[in-house]
Automatic annotation (TrEMBL):
<feature type="signal peptide">
    <location>
        <begin position="1"/>
        <end position="19"/>
    </location>
</feature>
<dbReference type="Pfam" id="PF00497">
    <property type="entry name" value="SBP_bac_3"/>
</dbReference>
<feature type="domain" description="Solute-binding protein family 3/N-terminal">
    <location>
        <begin position="25"/>
        <end position="246"/>
    </location>
</feature>
<keyword id="KW-0732">Signal</keyword>
<dbReference type="InterPro" id="IPR001638">
    <property type="entry name" value="Solute-binding_3/MltF_N"/>
</dbReference>
<protein>
    <submittedName>
        <fullName>Transporter substrate-binding domain-containing protein</fullName>
    </submittedName>
</protein>
Length: 259
């Protein structure tokens, strides 16, 4: 712990700014994605939001977290330096735009079926042969299915539309991330017992994404602070509190932007 604190101070001292001044803080952007990020009583909260605040506390930063629609936050992060967009999954295009720290959470992409459906497909191809698969536009689940070239997808504008289609029998399976099922069902007034996971497709790590123009030393400082939290037990406590399960074996890595 002492060694990490010394390293953090050393990294921060290399950031631009006059001696004795706090380093310029970063802009923090997230999207409405409970339980990771959300607005409650006019204030941002959620697992990833509280984790970012703990990191800021270690680094002496104090920016407020802005909760914006994903498209707006992503556009801002593409054009503005010193911006952190989270939680963010990684794809080839984003690897050329951002530096990443994490992963700090993991989502498991599942196919869900109705609870009275006894089918258990062994893979995506078999699932597609049994009926239509639904997904919502712009989600990691949509990309996964499109990359797999699964035919006959029913793509909805919002995740609750896919849920309603599943319950109404318009689709046989629904592809969605496990972390977000509970809040979505609660908001829609649907009992959890009405659906069930039938096939795990993929596990996806979620990261803090740092925009172009953010000093590498700041990225390194966030990585060290996250590592510190993971080793201290604070990360595990926060994970249980917000996500209701033990943290998987995650580590605080840096993935530098591909040139």
């Amino acid at each position: 712990m002492r060694t990490l604190a010394i390293l953090l101070l050393g990294v921060l001292s290399s950031l631009p700014g006059a001696a004795g001044e706090l380093p310029q803080t970063v802009k923090l952007l997230t999207e409405p994605l409970p339980p990771l990020s959300q607005y409650v009583d006019g204030r941002a909260s959620g697992f990833s939001v509280e984790l970012a605040r703990l990191i800021q506390r270690q680094l002496g930063e104090g920016a407020e977290v802005e909760v914006l629609p994903w498209a707006r936050g992503y556009a801002m992060a593409l054009r503005e330096p010193n911006t952190v967009l989270f939680p963010t999954s990684i794809n080839d295009n984003r690897r050329q735009q951002f530096d990443f720290v994490g992963p700090f959470a993991e989502v498991r992409m599942h196919l869900y079926g109705r609870s009275n459906d006894a089918s258990r497909p062994k893979d995506l191809a078999e699932a597609a042969s049994l009926g239509t698969i639904g997904v919502y536009r712009g989600s990691p689940a949509e990309k996964l299915l499109l990359d797999s070239k699964i035919p006959g997808l029913l793509i909805a504008a919002f995740p609750d539309q896919s849920l309603r289609q599943l319950l109404a029998g318009r689709i046989r399976f629904w592809c969605h991330a496990d972390l977000f099922i509970g809040p979505l069902l609660s908001k829609a007034g649907v009992d959890e017992g009405q659906i069930q996971p039938v096939l795990e497709l993929k596990r996806i790590g979620l990261y803090f994404a740092f925009s172009r123009g953010t000093a590498p030393a700041r990225v390194e400082a966030w990585q060290l602070a996250l590592q510190n939290l993971m080793q201290s037990g604070e990360f595990a406590r926060l994970h249980r509190q917000w996500l209701g399960r033990e943290a998987t074996a995650l580590s605080a890595n840096i993935l530098w932007r591909e040139q």
